[in-house]
Write a structure and sequence with these properties.
71 residues, 11% strand
């Protein structure tokens, strides 16, 4: 995929990408452990995440796991 392409993920996309169910993702958001979504339309209900934001979060989790595992 082109690095300049900005893909928006919706909650229905996240379980297959992260391995977590929506309830767990919402819990992580509430605890500040997962990036909060942004409104797709100001004042609207629809929200999503930029795919690169989620990819960066996954990479950070993997890096943290590697650091903890290597101790």
């Amino acid at each position: 995929m082109d690095q300049n392409t900005k893909r928006i993920l919706r909650m229905k996309d996240l379980p297959s990408k992260t391995g977590f169910q929506p309830s767990t993702i919402y819990e992580f958001i509430a605890k500040g452990k997962f990036p909060a979504p942004f409104k797709l339309v100001p004042g609207g209900r629809a929200a999503g995440w930029l795919e690169n934001t989620v990819d960066d979060w996954i990479a950070a989790q993997a890096e943290h796991h590697e650091l903890v595992s290597s101790k």
